[in-house]
Amino acid sequence: MIDLYTWGTPNGRKVSVMLEECGLKYHVTKVNIGTNAEQFTPQYLKINPNGKIPSIVDPDGPGGSPLAMMESGAILVYLADKTGKFFPEKHKYQVLQWLMFQMGGVGPMFGQAHHFIRNAKEQVPYGIKRYSDETRRLYGVLETRLMEATFLADEYSIADIATFPWVARHEWHKVDLNDFPAVKRWYDTIAARPAVARGMSVPTPP
Fold first, then answer.
1. Were both Cys, which of 37, 57, 127, 134 would link to 3 (CB 3.0–4.6 Å)?
2. pTM higher than 0.70
3. What is the DSSP code (8-state) at residue 39?
4. Helix H or strand E segment including 119
5. 146 neighbors 186 (Cβ within 8 angstroms)
6. With pLDDT > 90 as the criterion, what percentage of the chain qualifies?
7. What is the 3 state secondary structure string of 43-97?
């Protein structure tokens, strides 16, 4: 059984959705990053030296040896490799480029929008405008792609699994999905998947 260390964030939910989609058994350990302490314990830093979530420990890693992994995108690639799911060979490079788009663009920029709109200790108009504008630009990139394809890499893949939990917080960054109809169609399609609904509820509230 895989051990999942996570909290209720988009990055954490990428991995719980993937585990549910793959039908893998897993045990959840909550790491409350809001305390700014639990993720920095010596025990956790042995699993994730970067002191972030999510992380996994797979007791049945390559060659049957235990494997600890950090970084949500890398974990998705590992789980896809392990199960042979959601990383289709014929679309491999499409999957990788859209996964990297999420890791390098959607996640960091949406996260900064969340910070400046919701969490900053003082209003910083420049920060709000900068990251709100970039967030809308990235939605435009997604819209253009999803006007021509059902999913980011033509078929449902880890690229969609990585991106969906960030788009699920569209209200946090003050984006109306009706402004991006192709993204909304994609979002509604993925939200209707039972495994996605289960994964998005992990971890359960304290």
1. 57
2. yes
3. G
4. none
5. yes
6. 94
7. HHHHHCCCCCCCEEEECCCHHHCCEEEECHHHHHHHHHHHHCCCCCHHHHHHHHH
